[in-house]
Write a structure and sequence with these properties.
The chain is of the alpha+beta class. The chain is built from 15 helices and 23 strands.
Length: 465
């Protein structure tokens, strides 16, 4: 009966019901770290399991960051799952390796891997949701952190009660940390202490241990209640802004036949700053990138940089400026081109064809174009190579008596990051002869003294059936 229940149990069930987080008869994955919050959350779910006809599954992620302590957490959670008679899934992840390969902080890498595991478990057991144990104090800390980082409306909205994709729910967001700790003491619930929570190395811990207690000591206002109210209001405002963003986005974002997305810079900049941030945030979400404040700011800062400038948003998503557009691309990982070629042969590769003639007498007129060039045959060395461009490449553009970095040439010619990866370079004995289809090197040009020439022809590969 309800009158025999603890007030936290009653509030928990009411919150689940009023927010529509869980329906009777569903399967729910419980994210259990072993800390006090997740242990209490699991106990509360276990207490309503029968009356709500719920199927519960526990998921634990061992981030392998704290050695024996992490192994102890895993063993403890496994034992507790057995006590509750709840099916248990555990997975160990290489957080340090993922952080290094994806250029993420340790915390970001751990978070990303954690939610990937939760989603795999949810899919495996066909659960409706994954429940995490974030509570009201966590939300207040998040709002304060985001305010200090200078985030927009969505950052001030804090932790959402429900997050898609991934069907993440936060059924303890109504509860204070002190209420949860009291419930654990009164019911003898065991839990594990994470030693990393005591370190002021992390910004959240510094706020939790130093800043927030100083604010609360003033007794002038209820810090957690105030910031949770702000979070609720900002989330409502974010809903209105999201609707406006969805309405505006089709006029600013286009997609090409390769699936790359392109954002019109001047149209974006014509909007108020809060809408600019909202538009970029929505694009990152649609592209599957982590929609974090610093990445939004990186994209917006790119609008003020030169053509060819780029930002790596993740290991498989880049954004670069191409004149009045920001291009979001997923670069193809292909082996670098490096092929020796000889005169008198034609080479058909994946994306282009190159033909080199034998030396011929210099014709009366030279009809050079972007696809056809003539070079002084005697200037060519014994080793000709067709290759990809490399950092540090330089040449002497036709008509210029000085060296120029190839990267600078591409910027001047408004060649995008994606395009320059597919422009082959013809070199002779280590010197650039031709940026194929673009510009000849002045050292190999035909002069009045030239007696024989080599005709170079470059164009797209065409297959005949």
């Amino acid at each position: 009966m309800k009158h025999n229940q603890h007030p936290l149990e009653i509030a928990f069930a009411d919150f689940l019901s009023s927010m529509g987080l869980v329906q009777h008869g569903e399967t729910v994955v419980l994210a259990l770290s072993g800390g006090v919050d997740s242990m209490v959350m699991t106990e509360l779910f276990a207490r309503i399991r029968s009356t709500w006809n719920l199927s519960l599954v526990i998921a634990h992620v061992n981030h392998q960051l704290r050695g024996e302590e992490s192994l102890g957490d895993e063993a403890f959670v496994r034992d507790q799952a057995e006590r509750w008679k709840i099916p248990f899934y555990a997975e160990r992840v290489d957080t340090y390796g993922h952080a290094a390969s994806s250029r993420l902080s340790k915390q970001e890498a751990a978070r990303q891997l954690r939610y990937e595991v939760f989603e795999r478990v949810r899919t495996k057991v066909n659960a409706s949701a994954v429940a995490t144990a974030h509570q009201a104090d966590d939300n207040a800390e998040t709002v304060l952190l985001n305010a200090l980082r200078g985030t927009g409306v969505r950052g001030l909205a804090g932790i959402p009660v429900r997050r898609d994709p991934g069907a993440i729910i936060r059924p303890l967001l109504f509860a204070r940390r002190s209420e949860i700790a009291l419930f654990a003491r009164e019911h003898g619930i065991q839990f594990r202490d994470d030693s990393s929570n005591e370190s002021n190395e992390y910004r959240r811990n510094y706020l939790r241990h130093n800043v927030i207690p100083a604010i609360e000591a003033s007794k002038e206002f209820d810090f957690v209640t105030s910031l949770n109210r702000l979070s609720r209001l900002m989330r409502q405002l974010d809903g209105l802004l999201s609707a406006e963003v969805r309405q505006l986005l089709p006029g600013l974002l286009t997609r090409d036949e390769r699936g790359s997305s392109s954002l019109h810079i001047s149209r974006l900049r014509s909007k108020p700053e809060y809408l600019q941030e909202g538009l970029v945030l929505e694009i990152l979400k649609r592209l599957g990138a982590d929609a974090e404040a610093h990445k939004v700011h990186q994209v917006l800062e790119l609008c003020n940089r030169t053509t060819g400038s780029q930002v790596q948003l993740s290991k498989d998503l880049h954004v670069y400026r191409n004149r009045d557009r920001l291009e979001f691309v997923r670069p193809r990982i292909e082996p670098s081109l490096h092929q020796e070629v000889v005169l008198g042969e034609s080479y058909a590769l994946k994306d282009f064809r190159l033909t080199l003639s034998e030396p011929i007498p210099r014709p009366a007129s030279l009809d050079s174009t972007h696809s056809v060039e003539f070079v002084d045959a005697r200037r060519l060395g014994s080793r000709l190579v067709l290759r990809s461009w490399q950092d540090g490449d330089w040449f002497m553009p036709l008509g210029m008596p000085f060296k120029k970095k190839l990267s600078d040439y591409f910027v001047d010619e408004k060649v995008s990051l994606l395009q320059k990866r597919h422009i082959p370079i013809l070199e002779s004995n280590g010197e650039i002869v031709w940026v194929c289809g673009r510009r000849l090197d002045d050292r190999f040009k035909v002069t009045d003294e030239t007696r024989s020439v080599v005709r170079l022809e470059f164009g797209p590969t065409i297959f005949y059936h």
